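From the pipeline queue, job 12 of 40. The input is one protein chain; the requested action is below.

Action: predict structure.
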Amino acid sequence: METPLIAFHGDQAIKDKYLARVRDHRAKDELIRGTYGNWEGGRYRGCAVGCTIHGSDHRAYERELGIPSVLARIEDGLFERMAIEKAMEWPEQFLGAITPGADLSLVWPKFAVWLFADPEDGMIRFVKSEAAAKAVRDVADAYRAVISGEKEKINWQELADSVYADRAALADRAALADRAALADRAALADRAALADRAALADLAALADRAALADLAARADRAALADLADLAARADLAARAARADLAARAALADLADLAARADLADLAARAARADLAARAALADLAARAARADLAARAARADLAARAARDFYFRASQKLLELLKEAKPAEVAIA
């Protein structure tokens, strides 16, 4: 039978030594995240684990403190992820919650059951398929068996194979969903292409109509030119008629110039209106983009806060389990 580790090797002096060490590091602002740490000018600056053992080997917790290395890894992970002000207090809280002589071998299995199956904070809340839910329940049940002393009944390899098989099934479903989404996008693209073609056909029809109108206008002008030529060849007696025709032509020219001026004015107004509309649309687009960025930032902030809150709750659960650990059933020298 494997002899369980004994917290602090059953010696209060060991607990006092390491607790004083991490407390001193915090007081000197030497607790930092993102690195296990190193010595600089006689000072050691590092993370929770680094400032506890002055190194990075989680297994040193077992040799020096009698604490399972898996708990050192959990302490490490929580320190890096919880809110910074709570993280600075965490190493002292972690060591302070452990009673010298306690058997900590069941702390991780109990924490794992909470992590996987707790109805409020566990992974089970986030699964979206029965296959995934079954995998989570199977893992939690395995750790429950460890807690109840039936560890030998668990085939961890079979459990792992089952969990990975469920993950593969979920991946296949995800691939099918991706294909369906791609098919939908292709259908939308085809519809857009048809719409573009219809729009081009409409533009072509409009262009044809404009061309016909231009030809008609040219024909009208040619007819007027022919009439003018006939008038020029007429008898001197028709001068009065020609003068009358000339006056009418002048009036027509004036009317044509006025019409062109009106059309130019309308075109200018339309251009200004188009520019104004484009500016308004650009402004709306910019506002929408800013609103979208603000909404994304707000969602990211909420997610970050939720994550920090979860890691804090996880730390409190771990402290609860550490405090509940019973004394080891071995003689303490």
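Job complete. The CA atoms of residues 175 and 181 lie 10 Å apart.
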